[in-house]
Write a structure and sequence with these properties.
about 140 residues; mainly alpha
Length: about 140
Amino acid sequence: MRFRARKAAHVFERVGLAMAGAACGLFVGAYVGSAISHLTTQGFLLVMMLLGVIGFYIGIDTPQLPFDEAHSQIDAAELLSSAGTLCATFAAFASVAVIVLRLDPHAALTWLVLIAWVAGVAMQIVAGAKARMRG
């Protein structure tokens, strides 16, 4: 019974992370889509949200290296996961700030936010895949 409870808690945690990723993707998509006219589509919002779901689901809760290996080498998956999470959440935070404070930033910030989001979730996805392939 205890195993089922732990498994259910893990699933709830992962679904919550995926929902947070979707919300972050929605904010990034809303900001970038409103600033770049070619990206003002529902499809763009959906892609941003799906990237967030996949990145946050796979890339945040990665299996760690065994204890004896963790001290002898750098865990690339853990490094990619943390850097990706930082980039993706920076992009989401900047997007929310622009939307809520009704700022009119330079177009360069819009592109920086888009690049940070895509790079961040890409790092999370690669980290999650790498960590799961090793064990």
